[in-house]
């Protein structure tokens, strides 16, 4: 096996494995190093996303939603369920199977594209513009060389100061996906994407869930109108969210966790939980990379410093994904990975941060792209807004899920779409039309003039675009 490569990628998450495949497609002799292990100690590429993030969480969200439909929703459809039971072991087993299928799929793609895979932890030894020595610490330590290095080492869950994760009582996303018995009372610190998704899973399965959020506003990064609608819908389901809290002492006992906190009114409160999920953000993972030893520059927050093209301060060393600036999203990492591989080949790889979609996979789903109304106001941009509720959509009625709405924001003069925001059924799929439209700098009128299938949820997108000009047809 050759130990000299044109491109070596450190990290096999969405940014890393995609970068390696694209580099190989472009004719480079490429290797990817990744240390994730499965239960048997074998390779499990795919990073946090595949192993303890996007993929397993969606598997559990789907399973728990089926359970909730069976226990509450099916009766409305004339389907009577008697003797409903929950086999949590089987549910977790299915989640693990889905993860393994994705792990195996990546290994297959490496083989198909002739990417050499090394199972272990990659770190810099030495190097310059002529090439870099990379140590692979795995079952057997070895050193490989690379002309170009792409760092895609991802991120780690941020712990509260003095409250480390034990993944038994105090859980990160890793432990939250592997609870073996539905807790009676579940505490969640942080009402972000992970907190809301994991809280939703365990609430559906029977837990009493309390979410504690330090910020005074619910989902502050989301369009305010959409966030308020989402908060109302989630509260109606029984997800208890307290905003503006100040976390105090956290004590883990033999059987549970006690959280002392001050509520938004300044009153002292105490929450007693069987389990506590801490989801207060993530930190860039540069542990063991030997960044200091080789002179790789980090910024003040610990991210690898890069320019607009993902170049680091070292010649021929690049970095993508969670370990660099920008949103910590798997699809953002993938786009950067492709762009870097193409830049190494002398092409003009491109990532448009303004059209990266965001999704929260609660029920209803929340998805958006572009600017929020509050951002446009702060920037002094003149805009028009149009909304359309799923309550007036025929397909949503047939589905039995009419919660939420679609919202368009367009430039007041040119009608160019500046942002699209959705809370409702299948928002994660519906948002793609808005991404495409914004990439082509479409106007709201363009979407309003496009024929959408009937009956479909996508008609709500068309109607919201029509509403920008105050001419919605079905509301």
From TrEMBL:
Give the chief site where it resides. Answer: cytoplasm
Keyword set includes Ubl conjugation: no
Free-text comment on the cofactor? Binds 1 FAD per subunit.
Cofactor(s), names only, from the UniProt record: FAD
Pyridine nucleotide-disulphide oxidoreductase dimerisation domain residues = 356-465
Catalytic activity of the protein: N(6)-[(R)-dihydrolipoyl]-L-lysyl-[protein] + NAD(+) = N(6)-[(R)-lipoyl]-L-lysyl-[protein] + NADH + H(+)
Top-rank taxon of the source lineage equals Bacteria
InterPro entries xrefs:
Class-I_Pyr_Nuc-Dis_Oxidored, FAD/NAD-bd_sf, FAD/NAD-binding_dom, FAD/NAD-linked_Rdtase_dimer_sf, Lipoamide_DH, Pyr_nuc-diS_OxRdtase, Pyr_nucl-diS_OxRdtase_dimer
* Localization per record: Cytoplasm
The EC class name is oxidoreductase
Q: Which UniProt keywords apply?
A: Cytoplasm, FAD, Flavoprotein, NAD, Oxidoreductase, Redox-active center
**GO MF term (any one):** dihydrolipoyl dehydrogenase (NADH) activity
Q: What is this protein called?
A: Dihydrolipoyl dehydrogenase
